[in-house]
Amino acid sequence: MKGTLLMPFKGGPSPPGIPDRKWWGMLHYSCDLCGKDLTDGTDGRYVVQMEVFATHDPAELTDADLGDDHLEEVGQLLREADAEDLEPAPAYKKLRYDLCKACHLKFLADPLNREAQKFDFSEN
To answer: Global pTM?
Structure first.
């Protein structure tokens, strides 16, 4: 999460569109997982950048595939689909997260958070 941490402004007038203030400017950093303040830089700050995009591995087409008319099948799928199902996911998205040292180590150990998917059932 990013906000604004106020710091003294030294020098001429404020930039255009910024009210004249004694305080303004520096970014505030906090861990996007636990919320710890990272602005002072004592524990270090780690950045995780991810890119998510669709990929297509085409199947091998045969002459029979090209000869079939699938228009009726597509029409049936469209009739059965809900409006929500027709909303495609974005084809590309870039993500950026700031992490503290502890969350950085947790992320490296389990980047997909698979541990959270495990169930610990008691033996009854």
So the answer is: 0.53
